[in-house]
Design brief:
mainly beta; disordered N terminus
């Protein structure tokens, strides 16, 4: 069995400085990532609140698990272990005493795949979160070139978690996660708020944002997501 892998922890200021100097070589993961306050995930419907979804990210180095709950109290990945292509994931609340909003939204939690897992082959996530448990099947990505445990390239990545919702991974300050301004399902474009007045920490962290375009609005053949604003301008290949 592959040794346990703890949840993604924050990069130090020194590591961030090395990264910007082009010298960073840390493995993927740098802080406890959460869905941003600007995530566009929709409200819960009926019995779906216990369902979990997932996606491969970071060219096969990382994964996201999507749960339902308060948008202000997003669980973090605690422990990850692997036995072949079966990966056991435990989610925990960051602060059991936190006061959470009473909304019911999709939230994304991200973690690193353990060494030895092959992202080009199908992966089974066995997820536990308190009294909840679910099995999330991830299709292998034959184009994945990243190796779990290897250094990330700090590039944006995105994957489908259902027919109309994408999970987007970006890298930057953990205190200034992207805030969604608008979504255009016709062109699969996400526009983010640009606010140069925000005071941001100098760490380099993974930030996950859910983008709910709508099940009936997205072209089934869409493979490219366009990002606009907040220094994220560019395109991202959608995998999975």
């Amino acid at each position: 069995m592959t040794s346990s892998s703890r949840a993604v922890t924050a990069l130090s200021l020194l590591a961030a400085a090395l990264l910007f100097a082009g010298c960073a070589s840390d493995a993927p993961g740098s802080s406890t990532p959460t869905s941003s306050p600007g995530s566009s995930a929709g409200a819960v419907d009926g019995d779906d609140m216990d369902d979990m979804e997932g996606a491969l990210l970071d060219d096969g180095r990382m994964f996201a698990v999507v749960t339902w709950g308060s948008s202000t109290c997003v669980p973090q990945v605690d422990e990850v272990t692997a036995n072949g292509q079966t990966v056991s994931v435990s989610l925990v609340d960051v602060d059991a005493d936190a006061v959470c909003t009473a909304d019911m939204q999709q939230r994304a939690s991200v973690g690193a795949l353990p060494d030895g897992v092959d992202p080009t082959q199908d992966i089974t996530l066995q997820v536990t979160y308190g009294d909840l448990s679910d099995v999330v099947d991830l299709d292998g990505d034959p184009e994945a070139t990243g190796t779990p445990g290897s250094s990330t390239e700090y590039l944006p990545s995105a994957g489908w978690v259902d027919d109309g919702t994408l999970v987007l991974l970006t890298w930057g300050s953990s205190s200034c996660a992207p805030i969604v301004e608008s979504l255009d399902a016709a062109t699969l474009t996400a526009t983010f708020v640009t606010d140069d007045t925000r005071m941001c920490t100098m760490d380099m962290a993974p930030r996950v944002t859910l983008l709910a375009f709508g099940d009936d609005a997205v072209d089934d053949d869409a493979t490219t997501l366009t990002l606009v604003g907040d220094a994220l301008d560019g395109t991202v290949e959608i995998r999975g």
